[in-house]
């Protein structure tokens, strides 16, 4: 840590099932922290999007190049911090991300399956159909006690979620508003 500049900016993965609000929350959190943001959907190869659009869940072979690309993004942003979304549903997936960025912290947006199902069904034009919500919950392995991260209730407002993260994260602080 560079004590002259203060604590290093956090390197975060906002995780959870499809429809948990990862993108909305992640973008808002990155803005408050003053760090770059990336959406994991942008890392999917076309074959993954086609498969999910057809209502088929991804398998580990589909996920591997996607997870590696996200890990590379994390490693590249480790010095200055950043926020990326990634479902990171299984411990093995999170381990792959930690291989590239050992200091990463996971922010798990977790909540009720029916709330998520309604959210996914209400997203116009998104490639992830509501029919895959159950497979997402079936795949989900919660953070282990030895994994660096926090769990937040996805049913809270975005502002409340950002505040909850900032209150819970040791050393986290929001950047001053631009122009302040």
Structural notes for this entry:
This protein is an alpha/beta fold. The chain has a single domain, classed as P-loop containing nucleotide triphosphate hydrolases (Rossmann fold, 3-Layer(aba) Sandwich), CATH 3.40.50.300. It is built from 7 helices and 5 strands; from the N terminus they run E-H-E-H-H-E-H-E-H-H-E-H. It has helices spanning 22-33, 46-53, 60-77, 91-100, 113-121, 133-139, 158-168; strands at residues 11-15, 37-38, 82-85, 105-110, 149-153. Helix 1 (22-33) packs across helix 7 and helix 3 (60-77) packs parallel to helix 4. Pathway: Carbohydrate acid metabolism. InterPro entries: P-loop_NTPase, Shikimate/glucono_kinase, Therm_gnt_kin. It catalyses: D-gluconate + ATP = 6-phospho-D-gluconate + ADP + H(+).
Q: How do the helices and strands line up, and which of them pair or pack?
A:
Blueprint: E1 11-15, H1 22-33, E2 37-38, H2 46-53, H3 60-77, E3 82-85, H4 91-100, E4 105-110, H5 113-121, H6 133-139, E5 149-153, H7 158-168
Parallel strand pairs: 1-3, 1-4, 2-3, 4-5
Helix pairs in contact: 1-7, 3-4
